[in-house]
Design goal:
Elements lengths: L29 H10 L5 E8 L12 E4 L1 E3 L3 E8 L2 E11 L2 E8 L12 E5 L7 E6 L1 H4 L9 E7 L4 E8 L2 E9 L6
Antiparallel strand pairs: 1-2, 1-11, 2-4, 3-4, 4-5, 5-6, 6-7, 7-8, 8-9, 9-10, 10-11
């Protein structure tokens, strides 16, 4: 039952040619539990909406958002995000011995990588089975200095049956979307 699943994950990730510094290997099982909980949603689609910022000019404001939990393996989950007709974004969550990594893959309609793609970071040690936060890594900060303080959080609220994707920059909210898990689109 989806409502009983702790569902937290950072949907995201864009890789850069800069070598990424991985955190020290964690002995905590929570990143793997979080990853497994998202994997249980594989094959399902969920609708959502932007909750922050309230600015109607934000590129995602007012657009129907749909995430598809797909392409699930033991080490990687790809979650395409559709915003209205725009299908250029995919969150990539990778589980490795070093921890949990979130990247954002942005593509042009022809499938070629966007100039800004594969950004994201590693999960912090404070994550839980239902909430993981990902701090911007050096591969993100080098080409995007303004994003050096980014923290992406993915949280599954089993009571509300929602998945929240949020971004903070400079310790202030920058973006938040909420997806309804009780109504999979199949």
């Amino acid at each position: 039952m989806i409502g009983s699943l702790p569902f937290v994950a950072a949907l995201l990730a864009f890789a850069s040619p800069v070598e990424e510094a991985a955190p020290a290997a964690s002995s905590s099982p929570l990143p793997a539990v979080f990853f497994a909980n998202i994997s249980k949603l594989c094959g399902q689609r969920f609708e959502g909406a932007t909750e922050f910022p309230p600015d109607p000019n934000h590129p995602l404001a007012g657009k129907k958002l749909v995430i598809s939990i797909e392409q699930c393996s033991d080490q990687e989950i790809r979650i395409p995000l559709q915003a209205g007709e725009d299908t250029s974004r995919t969150w990539i969550i990778t589980l490795s011995d070093e921890g949990l990594l979130l990247k954002h893959d942005h593509r042009h309609p022809d499938g070629t990588p966007d100039e800004v793609t594969m950004y994201g970071g590693w999960a912090t040690k404070e994550g839980t089975a239902t909430r993981q936060s990902f701090v911007a890594d050096p591969a993100t900060a080098q080409p995007l200095p303004e994003a050096a303080t980014n923290v992406w959080t993915i949280e599954i609220d089993s009571a509300k049956r929602q998945l929240t994707y949020a971004l903070e920059r400079n310790n202030a909210p920058r973006y938040k979307a909420v997806f309804e898990l009780q109504r999979p689109r199949g």
